[in-house]
Design a protein that fits this description.
The protein has two domains: about 5-140, ACT domain (Alpha-Beta Plaits, 2-Layer Sandwich), CATH 3.30.70.260; about 190-385, Aminohydrolase, N-terminal nucleophile (Ntn) domain (Glutamine Phosphoribosylpyrophosphate, subunit 1, domain 1). About 30% of the residues lie in helices and about 20% in strands. The protein has twelve helices and 15 strands. It has a five-stranded antiparallel β-sheet. The longest helix has 21 residues, at about 100-120.
Length: about 400
């Protein structure tokens, strides 16, 4: 189980001052939640690589902070593989704009660290993992039950740890063995369900990865990011890897989720042509990640959820008069005063529910998809560039049967 929240600036600012370094304003530094090996020597080597890697990528490491934990009540199996948890703080370079540009820089840095440390530190055995690395959000998770998350991470009970949202995931592993790093939420999503097409999705990705290009990354940065998907991950973790890449390539989170988990659009005569053109265009770029799925997602500015095209996982919500939105896979996940609920309902197949925390409003499925689908002339692109077999010229050489002598 785990929880993703906005970075608690007041709390971290005070705690870092006690350690001996100062943080800039919220948004001007990134926080990496690190899972480190228990071995002291290996842990120190990890820190040294982090400092060297930051220098290579023109970043400044402000310092490290140990995450305070309480192991009372944690099972022996979980404790036997418990990582050492630390937070690393990185300053935003003056040449990099706050927001999406800085998030992109941290994404490259995270991938560089993961690849370098896991391939060079002797005896690391995959014990180095970055649960989150962002200037907006932070993930606290582990091989824990939902009740243990609150008591294990003692700082979550500190009054200075405040957030406009909490994205919580609690579920037993189904496709993998439970582990600290495979607990959810991941860096952008929490997923209830299975990706039944996973092997096909991975094969498609491997086949196309070398042709990736983006104006948002230099060729050197793209080489750092490839092959993008960590195949030691669960199906949900692999999906999160792809969400990360597509988001940092200039798309919004709703756009990314519409690409990966599309509605049932093919042959749907009732669907708006603008939306159908969006799905048809993206079907040429990305195979759908199909299966029963309720996916919650956030980038720290907006939070939302989407349902697979068949609606095979439940997703229910309630809106209260004190401006709270609660969404969960089960009704009654939180005890609510029914007299304060002004609206409640459920997501239907293929639909999306989004709360924009900057604008302070709920964006409907129709509005968010109209906005995404209207951003580019997808129908024009299809008409201009799509090659249809029936329009191709006849082959110049017609194959005829071989004579017995030729054989």
């Amino acid at each position: 189980a785990g929880i993703m929240i906005q970075i608690p600036h007041e709390f971290l600012y005070d705690e870092c001052l006690k350690i001996g370094f100062s943080l800039d304003e919220s948004g001007d530094y990134g926080v990496g939640m690190l899972f480190l090996p228990k071995d002291v020597k290996a842990r120190e080597e990890c820190r040294e690589i982090i400092y060297r890697a930051a220098e290579k990528l023109n970043l400044e490491v402000l310092g490290f902070r140990k995450v305070l934990t309480n192991t009372n009540g944690i099972g022996d199996m979980a404790l036997s593989v418990e990582p050492e948890m630390e937070q690393v703080f990185v300053a935003r370079p003056h040449a990099v704009a706050a927001g999406a540009d800085f998030e992109r820089k941290l994404y490259v840095f995270k991938n560089y660290l993961s690849k370098t440390i896991n391939s060079t530190v002797k005896g690391i055995n995959g014990d180095f993992y970055i649960a989150s690395f962002s200037s907006r959000t932070i993930v606290y998770k582990g091989q824990l039950t939902s009740l243990q998350v609150r008591t294990y991470f003692t700082e979550l009970s500190d009054k200075r740890v405040v957030s406009a949202f909490g994205l919580v995931h609690s579920r037993f592993a189904t496709n993998t063995f439970p582990s600290w790093k495979l607990a959810q939420p991941f860096r952008y999503i929490a997923h209830n369900g299975e990706i039944n097409t996973l092997q096909g999705n991975l094969n498609w990705f491997r086949a196309s990865v070398k042709s990736f290009a983006s104006s948002y990354f230099t060729p050197e940065e793209l080489n750092i990011l490839l092959p993008v998907i960590d195949e030691t991950n669960s199906d949900s973790g692999c999906l999160d890897n792809v969400v990360e890449l597509l988001l940092h390539s200039g798309r919004s989170l709703p756009h990314v989720l519409m690409m990966l988990i599309p509605e049932a659009w093919d042959g749907n005569e009732d669907m708006d042509e603008l939306k159908k053109a969006f799905y048809k265009f993206h079907a040429t770029l990305m195979e759908p990640w199909d299966g029963p799925a309720a996916v919650s997602f956030t980038d720290g500015n907006l939070i939302g959820a989407t349902l697979d095209r068949n609606g095979l996982r439940p997703q229910r919500y309630a809106i209260t008069e004190d401006d709270r939105v609660i969404m969960a896979s089960e009704a009654g996940a939180l005890a609510l005063d029914q007299s304060k609920i002004i609206e409640k309902g459920r997501l239907t197949p293929g639909k999306m529910f989004v709360v924009d925390m900057e604008q302070g409003r709920i964006i409907s499925d129709a509005e968010i998809k109209q906005q995404v689908c209207g951003n580019r002339p997808y129908a024009d692109w299809i008409n201009k560039y799509q090659i249809k077999l029936e329009e191709l010229p006849e082959p110049r050489v017609v194959f005829s049967g071989l004579s017995q002598e030729s054989v």
